[in-house]
Structure formats: structure tokens, C-alpha cells
Amino acid sequence: MGILDHIGFAVSDYAASKAFYEKAFEPIGITLLMEVGAEATGGESHCGFGRQFPEFWIGTGKPLAGCLHVAFTVDTRAEVDAFHRAAIAAGGRDNGAPGLRPQYHPSYYGAFILDPDGHNIEAVCHKAT
Predict the structure, then answer these.
(1) Is 3 exposed, middle or buried (0-12, 13-18, 19+ CB in 10 A)?
(2) Which fold has domain 7-125?
(3) Where in this chain does the record put each VOC domain (predicted)?
(4) First-last CA distance in the chain
């Protein structure tokens, strides 16, 4: 079992970030699973992405000051590559091309993208091949 149930944060442009994540997450099997409007929360809108349950949430409100780093585990290196391509095509900025990062461990294969707010979003595969 993981140590986190979910994470969420406000973004500066909800619609743009929602569209970015929908496109960037598609190749790694993460989809928009839930959206909660301002009428249900008393003022802010939120949407949750995940594979089975919404685990990654973005919403309206005061955006974070500074940069957040979130890494998503995938099963294959090809998924890391596909995530990087899709996130770039969706408007993300490259923050580390797909490749081995042996400083973490010999099989660590990851790619890093800056989202519309500059948050460092990563896809990582820990398998040897």
C-alpha cells in the first residue's frame, strides 16, 4: 500500500490545466474520474484524475507559490516516453527528457515536464527493462 491517498492543489487556470492533464495523462492510463463544481463545494471547482480512484486533484482557488513535484509510476519505459511526448504536445515544457537516472537507482527511468503553472510532473518506471 502507498503512503498517500490523494494530493490536490489549486492552479492558476483551471480549464487550461484540466485540458493539459487530460492529454498528458492519456498515454499512462490516468483519466479524469470526477469533477466537483463550485456549487457543491461552496465556491471552488475541483477535478480528480486516476486509474481507479481520483488520486490527483487540481482546482480553483489561490494557486501555490513555488513549485510542486509529483511523480507517477508506470509499468514500462515506453509509457514514460509516451507521457513525455503527450505532455509536450499538450503545452508542457521539457524539464528532463526520458532516460535513465542512475543516481536514484540503476533502473530508474523517468521523464519530467513542467505543467502550465511550472510544477514538475514526472512519469517513472522502476523496472530494469
Answers:
(1) exposed
(2) 2,3-Dihydroxybiphenyl 1,2-Dioxygenase; domain 1 (3.10.180)
(3) 3-126
(4) 24
pTM of the model: 0.94
Residues 25-34 as b/e (b if ≥16 CB within 10 A, e otherwise) read bebbebeeee
pLDDT (tens digit, 0 to 9) for every residue of the chain, 129 residues total? 678 899 999 999 999 999 999 999 999 999 999 999 888 888 899 999 999 999 999 999 999 889 999 999 999 999 999 999 999 999 999 999 999 999 999 999 999 999 999 999 999 999 998
